[in-house]
Each structure stands twice: as C-alpha cells, then as structure tokens.
Amino acid sequence: MATVALRLDHADQRLRTRIRWSLGDAAVMTRRYSLQLVRVPTILFFALLQPVMFVLLFRYVLGGSIPVPGTTYAEYFIPGAIVQSTAFSSFGTAVGLNFDVGRGLVDRIRAMPTARFAVLVGRLASDTVRSLGMVIVLVGVGYAVGFRFENGVGAAIAMMVLAIVFGVPICCIAATIGLTMRDPEAVQSFGLIWLFPLTFISGAFVRVQSMPGWLQVVARANPVTLAVDSMRSFAYGGPLEVHLLETIAWMVGILAVFGPLAIRAYKRTT
Amino acid sequence: MPVQGDAAIWAEGIKKHFGSIRALDGIDLEVARGTTLGLLGPNGSGKTTFVRVLATLTHPDSGRAFVEGHDVVHDATRVRRLIGLAGQFSAVDDHLTGFENIVMAGQLFHLDRSLASNRARDLLERLDLDDAADRRVKTYSGGMRRRLDLAASLVAHPSVIFLDEPTTGLDPHSRLGLWEIIRELVRDGATLLLTTQYLDEADQLADQIVLIDHGRVIAHGPPEELKDRVGGDVLECQVVPPDRLGDAIRVLEPLGIAAPQVDRVTGTFHVAVGSTNSTVLVEAVRRLDAAGIALTDLALHRPSLDDAFLSLTGHAAVTGEPSASDDESAHRGNRGGRRKLKRRVSRQFVEATEAV
C-alpha cells in the first residue's frame, strides 16, 4: 500500500511539474509576443489607425444614409465597429503565426521540450492585450463622435470585456488559417477575406431587417450579430440574457473546434 | 531496443517521402558519443529532412532512429530535452535583445529565470556577443545572428547538437569564427551532427563524413579516407616562358603521387599531391626558385564537392528536386553546392614565412 501511495504521489508531483512548466511556457511566449507589440510602436499605430478610420468613415460618410429607428447612428454602430475591429485584428494573428512558421521559429520551439500549446496561447494572450488597447481607444473615439454609455459603469466595463473576449475565438480561427496555409500570400489574402462576410452580414452596421429574407437568417445566427446585440444591451440597457448566452455558446463552440485544429496544425507544420 | 553500443545517434532504414519526392530513401547512420559527423550533400539531397527526423520535427515513413537511446518518434519529449538544434535560419526574435532571446530560450527549456540569465551571459560571452548582448537583434549582422541562434540552442547544455548548414551564406571571416566555436563544443564533449554542402567544412570539423545524394548514403568514412578516394589535393602550376615548362615539371614531379597532367597550350600542368598540408606549396616555390623558373600562377586546389561526387558516384552533384525545407535555402541564393577553395601562392607564402 505504501508503495502505491508513494507512486501516486510521485505521479501527482510529475503532473504538477508538467502543468507548472506548461503554464510557464505559455507565459514566456505571451511575454515574447507582447514585447514585440510594445517595441514596434508603428505596428500598434497602424493596427489602431484602421479601426479609427472605419469609425469615422461610417459615422460621417455612410451613417447618414443608414436608418436606425429610435436611436442615433453613432449610438447604434459603435458596438458593431468595436467587434469588427477586434475581429479584423485577428488578421495579425494569422499573418504573425504564419511568419513564425516560415522563418523557422516554430520549428525551433517544436524541437524544444516546450508545451505544444504555448506558442498558440502566447499569441492569443498577447492579441488579447492588443484588443484591450484597441477597445479603449475605440470607446474614446466613439465618445468623440456621439456614442454614450447609458447603463452605468459596470455594464460599460462588461461591454468592453465582452468585445475583448469575443476576439479570442476569432483569433483562434485565424491562428488555424495562419498555421494551416503555408503560403504567406495565401494567408495575407484569405486571412482578411473571411472577415468581411463575418462582420458585414450581421447587425453590426445596419439593421438585420433591412436585408433580404434569406440573408436575415444568416445574419441573425451570426455570432457577430449576437455579440453586438449583447454589447448594445450592456451599453443602453435592454433584454440581454438570450443574446449573451447564445454569444457565449458560439464562443465556446468555436474554441472547442478551432482550438484543437490550431494545435494540430501547429504540430504538423513541416 | 536495438544494440547501439556507445552511439549517441543511431538510425536505421529511415525513409521519408513528400508526395512523389523521395526525400530519404533508407538512411543508416551511427554517430559515436563525443564525435562529430559531417553530413555532406548538395541541396535537395535530404540532409535537412534527415536532421528534422532526428530532431523530432518530422516523422519518418519507415525506419527507426534513436538519440541517446531514446526513440525520436515514441519518446520525442525525452529527445527534445537532450538536443540542441541550430541552422541556416536564425530563429531569433528581431525585436528582442540578444540577452532576452537566450533567456527566453532557456525558459522554454524550463530553466528557471536566474539560471537562464547566468547561462545567457556565459554563452553570449563565449560566442563573442557580450558587447551586443543588450542590443536588439535587428541590428545584428548575419554572422552575429547565426552565433546567437547557436547560443539559443546551447542554453540547456544539450548532449547532442544538430547544426543544419551553420555557415551557409556567411562571409569567410564569420565562417572561420563559427568553426572555432564548433570545435570548442566538441572539445567540451558534445556529440555533433553537422550538415554542409562544403567538403572543406566537413573536412575541417568532422571525425566522420557521410556523403548523401537523393536520400541515400553514397559514401562514408573519415575525411582523409574520402579525400584520398577523391584523389586529394592538386598542385596547379603555370610557367611564363613555355620552354621552361619541361624543367618545371621535372622539378615538381617528385612532390606528386601520380604522373603530372600537362596542358602545353596554356603552359599549365597539374600534379596530384594527395592529402597534404600547405607545406607542399612552400616546397614547390623553393624548388622552382632554386631552379630559377619564373611563374605566372601556382595554386593548391582542395577537391571540391563536385570532385567528390564525380569520383564517388560517377556523376556530378546535380541539385535534385528540393525537399520542403531545402527549398528555402535555394530561395536564399545558395543553390548549387559548388565551391572551390583555392589557396593562392602569395597569401600562403606570406603565412608560411610568418610562421617560420
């Protein structure tokens, strides 16, 4: 009995060491990617410039001709623009990981006793940091063009957190793309292309009711629509539960599918 | 578990194909602990693919390979703890400093931070990068990057080190510097597998050379033996007044191991001198000088990879279908592993007199 207990203890200790190592590996990769972000401010600048530009274009060029009964366009589309921006920033995830494969960094780490998911988790974590910055900036710009939180500080923070967290499963899909497609040019185009229907066939910028009937079906089921509606409820009040639960279900589902796919693609990259 | 004796690396019948390309076609190989093996072959011959198999990055279609007794497929994690891999691509991060790169590599090997820091400082000093330690890698030269990459692979004291074309694309000075570092690693007891397209590099560094072509081993043995099979060094001599050609041949013939080959049109002749050192060049100059013969040119050629292929396979080293990874080196402009090391008489002579 004593030896059995001892062995279990030993196994337990080994498991604990492995978990500690794995978390440590993920932390090192997070730091590595985040340092890149901090050290090359131009990347961050352009990553922010694009969504800000989109907000201004929608607010002042397109917004005037998009009817949204019961509210102003600024109030309506800012949550949508924020989700669109976090989704579009996943392009950087795809291209970045693809670049790391191409230049041999991923191979080098795969030949080390480093946890299999460390590169992926590190990348997603640093992307989340980037999203945080982006969301804060966009809320600021939103305030400048007429957007207001009307439901208290807690709900405002909840809206921002949802936007940031929603970016994680999207980045996970992008990571799969970046690791699966070998050709950098293919990643450069496809990594961007899929984001257009994802964000535009939704209630982010227009009312779903304005679309043809068949497209409304797609738009209503789109996680972007659900996330944006949840964010609007956080920002202005209104029914929340159903949208939020559906959004969370989507996020969990995407992670459950694309998490393993991305890790498999990581292991396979040759 | 196969009987491996004291082999640090042991592979048997390794095959790997990518689509219709047979990258590895049954490689057997053994590297004794503490020795250096030079894996020599042109681009696309399968060198990189083979290293990737040993480094647990690619699964072979068939065959078995062990590193320090651990199966590279079934016991990959163990193998990864024991090996260091560095290569033609520096997988270091541009935006981090040299020091940060090494520390992070150490942490990914699960060294704790303070140990990784100490190790990083040691390695940077040893690889002559201590002055640049706190500079971002972006500012490093090609040779410095390669050294940093090597340092990153050494951080966890690997007992088996794989160097995939470590000097490809480097200038001669950086190349010599890296050779010195590699020699030091072996002196410290590491087992080394080095791939190269350059015969002189394998000759300089390896205890054993394995020559591969189209994924097969076509020759193996110690460098001296292979070079002798190739024919050894060649003394090439051109004489100014053609009428002294005969005298010159008479004077230099005793240095050779075979009859000189003469080209009367250019006034040039070749003397095969076997495996030698540069003293043969000095001796040749002395003899010609004593005989009062003026020269246009006198050079000692090492046998090139081309010569090696020609004499060992009967065909020239043709760059085959590049495999997935070799492909990239071709893009970097290193296509065709041809290189002829010529040691010119003037430089060699100066070195020889300085040495006296």
In short:
The complex is a heterodimer of chains A (270) and B (356). Chain A has 270 residues and is an all-alpha fold.
Topology overview:
The complex is a heterodimer of chains A (270) and B (356).
Chain A: H1 2-39, H2 41-62, H3 73-88, H4 90-102, H5 105-110, H6 118-144, H7 153-180, H8 184-193, H9 195-200, H10 213-221, H11 223-236, H12 241-268
Helix pairs in contact in A: 1-6, 2-3, 2-6, 3-6, 3-7, 3-11, 4-6, 4-7, 4-8, 6-7, 7-11, 7-12, 11-12
Chain B: E1 7-18, E2 21-32, E3 36-40, H1 47-54, E4 62-67, E5 70-71, H2 76-82, E6 83-87, H3 98-108, H4 113-126, H5 142-154, E7 160-164, H6 172-187, E8 191-196, H7 199-205, E9 208-213, E10 216-221, H8 223-230, E11 233-239, H9 245-252, E12 261-263, E13 268-274, H10 279-290, E14 295-301, H11 305-313, H12 326-334, E15 342-344, H13 345-355
Helix pairs in contact in B: 3-4, 3-5, 8-11, 10-13
The named CATH superfamily of the largest domain in chain B: P-loop containing nucleotide triphosphate hydrolases
How is the quaternary structure best described? heterodimer
Let me know the number of strands of chain B.
15
The residue-averaged pLDDT of chain B reads 81
Order of helices and strands of chain B: EEEHEEHEHHHEHEHEEHEHEEHEHHEH
- Form type of chain A: globular
Question: Can you walk through the features of this model?
Answer:
- The complex is a heterodimer of chains A (270) and B (356).
- Chain A has one domain.
- Chain A is mainly α and 270 residues long.
- In chain A, helix 1 (2-39) crosses helix 6 (118-144) and helix 3 (73-88) packs antiparallel against helix 6 (118-144).
- In chain A, 80% of the residues lie in helices and 0% in strands.
- Chain A has helices at residues 2-39, 41-62, 73-88, 90-102, 105-110, 118-144, 153-180, 184-193, 195-200, 213-221, 223-236, 241-268.
- The longest helix of chain A is centred in the N-terminal third of the chain and has 38 residues, at 2-39.
- Chain B has 13 helices and 15 strands.
- Chain B has two domains: 7-227, P-loop containing nucleotide triphosphate hydrolases (Rossmann fold), CATH 3.40.50.300; 233-301, Alpha-Beta Plaits, CATH 3.30.70.100.
- Chain B has a six-stranded mixed β-sheet with strand order 6-7-8-3-9-10, with helices on both faces. In chain B, strands 12-13-11-14-15 form a five-stranded antiparallel β-sheet. In chain B, strands 2-1-4-5 form a four-stranded antiparallel β-sheet, covered by helices on one side.
- The radius of gyration of chain B is 23 Å and the shape is globular.
- In chain B, helix 3 (98-108) crosses helix 4 (113-126) and helix 3 runs parallel beside helix 5.
- The longest helix of chain B has 16 residues, at 172-187.
- Chain B is an alpha/beta fold.
- The chains are: A mainly alpha (270), B alpha/beta (356).
- Chains A and B meet through helix 1 and helix 5 of A and helix 2, strand 6 and helix 3 of B.
